[in-house]
Amino acid sequence: MQAEVQEHRDVERESRLDLTLAQGISRGERMDWVMQKATELGVARIVPVITERTVVKLDERQGERKVEHWRAIVIAACEQSGRNRVPDVAAPRPFHELLRKDEHAGRKLLLSPIGTLNARDLTLAGAATLLVGPEGGLSQDEQELAIGAGFEQVRMGPRVLRTETAAIAALAILQHDFGDL
Hints:
Number of strands: 8
Helix content: 25-40%
Number of domains: 1
CATH architecture: 3-Layer(aba) Sandwich
């Protein structure tokens, strides 16, 4: 049996919005769920962040195994959703290191129940970094440091959402308003 390729149809499924999710590491399957759903929603990269309130403790070896595990989840989510490119999954990074890196393209957004901006009032042009705390949120000091590093506090509404719900809801809103949903 033989086959002849007569035509190639290039299908682009990547979002025009370059999104980075900086996610406070959460316990159990919550982080896995965020990795999967964020990938389905079109993030370009995911940066797991170690914060003051992060309960999960990872030494270097455990961190490497977790990244391998998360990358496998992201690859499976790409296959399921038909994405063209696999999002980058960074090694877990301490909160202060996240703020020192000048790798954040576009607008820097910090999810916060006391945010001064409502998600529906945002404007974005091409890229954004979304910072979401772990269970219990970011500490007051971490929030102040993030604001000092140029992050803007954004609230999702009147209710306090769980870390995994907040990340996915915010990504869906951003993709709807500025991306391709």
